[in-house]
Design brief:
The chain has 22 helices and 18 strands. It has about 675 residues and is of the alpha+beta class. The chain folds into five domains: about 90 residues; about 100 residues, Beta Barrel (OB fold (Dihydrolipoamide Acetyltransferase, E2P)); about 280 residues, no CATH class; about 40 residues; about 120 residues, no CATH class. The longest helix has about 35 residues. The radius of gyration is 28 Å and the shape is globular. The model has no long low-confidence stretch (mean pLDDT about 85).
Length: about 675
Amino acid sequence: MSKISDFTAALREDRQERAKLWLPVLFGTGIGFYFLLGQEPSKWLTLGVIEALILLAVLFRHYPAVLRVLFAAACVTAGFADAQIQTIYRETSQRAELPGRAVYVRGRVIKADYNIKGNRRLIFDGLEEFDGSRIDGRYRITLRGRGGDVDVGDCVEMVARVQPLAKAVLPGGYQFDRKNFYDGYSGSGYALSPVYRTDCPQDCQPVRTGLDSWRQKINRRIFKILPPDEAAIAAALITGERTLLPQRLTNQYRDSGLAHFLSISGLHMSMIAGLMFFLVRLILVCFPAVSLRFDSKKIAAVSAVVISAVYLGLSGAEVPAVRAFIMTFIVLLGVLFNRRAISMYTIAVAAMIILAVFPHALVGASFQMSFAAVVCLVAFYERYAVALSRFLDRSAGNALIRGVKILLLYFVGVLVSDLVASLATLPFAVYHFNRIALYTSLANLSAAPLIGIVIMPFVLLSLLAMPFGLEQYPLRLVGFGLGEVNRITDWVSSLDGASYLVVSEPLWGLLLIVFGGLWLCIWQGKIRRFGWFGIVIGLLSIGTVTKPDVLISADAGVIALKDNHDRLVVLPSRGKNFIKQQWLEKTASKPLSKAENEKLKRIYKGKETAPEWLDLQCTPQFCVYKGKFRINKNGRLLLSGKTLNPEGTGGMAVYMGKELKIKTVREDIGRRLWNLN
């Protein structure tokens, strides 16, 4: 009983100061409930819950303990309602009847980027068929090749196939249609003919393409000045355009643990704002008449806010950049009003703003990894800041020793910060990407001086010089730094075991890690230790994951089988490379070597067997896997003698344990407003 009393006392002590940090957590929990549902909830039921909470609050208005519980429930309900309202609004505004066939279309380009293969993609806010009938909604059409000289704001026409958004390709897989739905797309497609520029109709209202056109022009100027590899990364750092990155470079940065450098976030925003702040103060110091009359610190803070806002607009305003801007803005606001910004509260405010405006961001890897890293870093700093200050104060009288300590702390700080951030984001990297970079500390320690001393300062100078056409000089120095970082990532990613494939932990395991980590970071004192229970159990949950024995695509055109080494093997078939890649990545399976591919083809043709590798027996007419799953080469599938039809399921996963178990994509994702087409 004494331990329970101590726990209650400690909780009460922390509650006064830190309880408000749980508000965005409760709000986010409501959003999470909404996205976990298998069926679209009734809006009337949500309204009934809200009215019931109001009624209960009136009835128990004299009972503070009950009111606190009701307030927590209200926060959860508010998050749920926010996600539901925004989804209903998007579904209503983006609903469209798609032709589902090849049509001659025309429209005005409002945005452009590139897909993973380097093909140009044009985004249209509405299309028009040859007969003048309107296809409402926003569409992304992939072209053949790089798309010539088509610019944002141009009107074009082409023959294209417009179709519904791509869906998940296996149970538990990434829901592409949900992301595209919240990005504002009604459908996608691909061009079947060349793209022709045409005059825009007189009654066609001009669209606001200024910012996107500006970003496109900046990217072109970057590519004129720098070599392709350096230019692609410079474009990602300045305009947030990561679609220009070659897949080779993306894999290189990912496997070395520096993939976060390619996404504009707190690292970039804080450096740009901080450098601008100190640059303006340095300039003002050179003019005593100004610096003595006005507060140079506040002028510098305003300048830092302005450049941060410009940088945010150029970057495309993705979730990590928005979060970083909000936090930077609050800190600089504290400078303007002579107030000290409290870091953990700053994070809570940023999270609350983003979740309220973009509730769907909660289920994205970007939001999760960004906030996990910054929350754990701030919590770590809160815990050890006093010890760090004492360490430096011991040498206050000796400048040399203090300088050595600061230099030592820099390198140790890079290692420790990288370790904390890597551990914080590890569960999300495993869940979403099935990959662990083992040498991330080596890459970050090697690249940090180049990023902090060369690349980001001259990125800022490039932004300041662009209006005057003088950006080529600082950009060349940016390119030099990026070239060196490219060499570092190439070396680190080539080391043995640099990247390790692993299956995703179950969702319940990830949630235990998340809430355990939040408990550990938000509370202070002894009660925070209870968070370790959730983290440990969540990490162990990966041991409960079983890979499917068979994966079948929605049209049964692609089939994969699990070999005796727990690796997924895709049977020979043409096309559908995207599905094959998704299957291999999600099951942490490496692609077959050339020799293994040839062997598999011989097995599939019935010319060879390899029971030590794959329990598959084939004839020219059919194949049998593990004596239960039969694949007739005319397209018919049988499981234990019963016909297996994947049509309408979105794809199947078959588990052949003690009991046969079948999961389908349709059952997994449910029927929601973003996947009804």
